[in-house]
Amino acid sequence: MKKQALLTVAFAATLLVTGCKLIKTSDYNTMAGKSGEAADTDKISSLIKDTFDSKLVPLVSSKAVDLNALSSALKSGLDDAGGKLGGLRIGGAGGSWNFAVKGNAKVLEVDRQSKAGAIKIDTDGDGKADAVLQVGPVVKGTALRDFAPFYDFSQFRDQIEFAKLGRSLNEAALAKIPALGGDLTGKTITFSGVVALRSASDPILVMPVTVDVAP
């Protein structure tokens, strides 16, 4: 008993000297989690502020191919289209091909009822939808992040933080396109954005970075 008491006193004295504080594992995880989320938000917000308008939009603009050209090239296969049109493949064989695209289109239908809002567009004048502009708030994929080489996974803590960047870029893009807030049905638009495809038969979902409405 005396030995145990002496050990307890010694341990307490050590804590006083070193300034240590005992924290339960659950409390530590909670504190670390809040700190990590706050740090992620600040880091990603700053990165998007520094790169979206100055780097990402110019990159998409410079690399964009006409959406009709992509649709035509896909008839020969996705890999063939990727090679000919400057697509960027993520994840090696079997990974998605990412293409910067642009075009003029007539808006056929606007769906804002579902969380995955969508604008169906006709780019070749046949009266049928050729692609969909994603308008959120739920957006599929991380095409904007994956197309830009300056968003490097090695600069992020882990896959979770990198995924947050993808979602934040989508949100930033939609927030920067005022035209998406109006009634576009029947109107003619000019757009640019990025498409991610895993097969030539995938639906073409454009994550837009610019949308302008014709007068």
What does the secondary structure layout of this molecule look like, with pairings?
Layout: H1 2-18, H2 25-63, E1 65-66, H3 67-73, H4 78-84, E2 88-89, E3 97-111, E4 116-122, E5 131-137, H5 143-147, H6 159-175, E6 188-197, E7 205-213
Parallel strand pairs: 1-3, 5-7
Antiparallel strand pairs: 2-3, 3-4, 3-6, 4-5, 6-7
Helix pairs in contact: 2-6
Description of the molecule:
This protein has helices at residues 2-18, 25-63, 67-73, 78-84, 143-147, 159-175; strands at 65-66, 88-89, 97-111, 116-122, 131-137, 188-197, 205-213. It is of the alpha+beta class and 215 residues long. Helix 2 crosses helix 6 (159-175). A 5-stranded mixed β-barrel has the order 3-4-5-7-6, surrounded by 4 helices. The longest helix has 39 residues, at 25-63. The termini are far apart. The chain has a single domain, classed as OB fold (Dihydrolipoamide Acetyltransferase, E2P).
* CATH architect. name: Beta Barrel
- The CATH topology assignment is OB fold (Dihydrolipoamide Acetyltransferase, E2P)
Strand order of the largest sheet: 3-4-5-7-6
- Within CATH, the superfamily carries the name Envelope glycoprotein gp160, DUF2291, alpha/beta domain
Quick one: how many beta strands? 7
Q: Please tell me the overall pLDDT.
A: 86
| Category from helices, strands and their pairing | alpha+beta
Task: Describe the global form.
Answer: globular
- Estimated share of beta-strand residues: 15-25%
Profile the largest sheet. Answer: 5 strands, mixed, barrel
Distance between the termini: 89 Å
Helix content: 40-55%
